[in-house]
Structure formats: C-alpha cells, structure tokens
Amino acid sequence: MDYRYLNEVQVAEMTGRALSTLRNERFNRCGIPYIKIGRSVRYSLQDVIDFMESRKISTSISKLP
Length: 65
Description:
single chain; 65 residues; alpha+beta; three-stranded antiparallel beta sheet; 3 helices; 3 strands; 40% helix
C-alpha cells in the first residue's frame, strides 16, 4: 500500500476540484476522507484515487447498423 499524503492544493490539482469545494466538503463532513494534524490537512493518495474511481461512469459503445 502506498502511504503518500497530499496537501489540499495537490488534491485540488489532481482532481480538478476547487480548493473551496474541498474545504466546504470537509466542513460538511463529506467528500474525500482526510487527516488533520494540528492545523494541517492531508489526504491519502489511495483515498483520493478510490474516491475518483468510485465516481467512474462506464459507457458502452454500441455498433450502429
């Protein structure tokens, strides 16, 4: 398991979500799981990946006649 941790700016860049969205989700206790160490907020890389993968929408390509 990869134990790398990212700060909120890195997560915002990686996911394309606004920094304010991440902060609002933390305030509302939803969104990507996070860790607080004092005033510092960190996200597990694996949690970010899992969060994004859980929102994946599969599409099927159908052949037209």
